[in-house]
Amino acid sequence: MLSSSIPSLTAIIDKEFGDLNLIQLNWKPSPDQWSIGQCFEHLIISNGKYLPVLKTIIEGKYKVSFWERNNPLSNYTGKQMIKTLGKNVIKKYKSPQLFIPSESIISQNIISDFKNHQAEIFSLFLELENEKYAETIITSPVASLITLKLYDLLELIIVHAERHINQALRLKNNNRFPNT
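Below the sequence we write its predicted C-alpha cells.
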C-alpha cells in the first residue's frame, strides 16, 4: 500500500527539517536553485492541483471524460512520469509554471504546512487504495491531453515527494548551508 510510505516520509521531514529557521528554509546555493522551503511549497502546490479530483472520486461524483476513456497512452503516461519525476534524478526537469513555488520568502510555517498537507494526502490515499478505483483514469492539471491511471498518480505523488525531500537534504548537507 502506497499510503504506508506517507508517515515515514513525514517523520523524515520532521526530523531533518522541522527545526530549521527562516534563513535556513530560504537559503539557496545559487539564485537559479530552489530553497528547502521552495521544495516543500512546490509539493504542496503540485499535489494540491490533484486534490479536487481525488475528493470528487471519493465522493462518487467523478465523471470519466471521453478522452480519459479512450486515450491509448494513459497506461504509458503515468509509468513514464513515475520514472522521470521519481527520487532517482536521471535528468533535471523544469517544473510547469502551474507548479512553480513563490520567489518571495517562504514562511517559517512551511514544514508544518507540508506535514498537514501530508496528513490530508494520507487520508485520501486510505480511501483511494481500494480495488474499485483500480481502473480510474484522470486528466493532468498541466495539460488536458495528458491522462493517467489514478494508481499511477498516487505512486507519482510518493516518488515526487521523495525526489524533493532528497533535493532538500542535498541543500541541507551543502557545505555552505547556514548553521544558524
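The mean pLDDT is 94.
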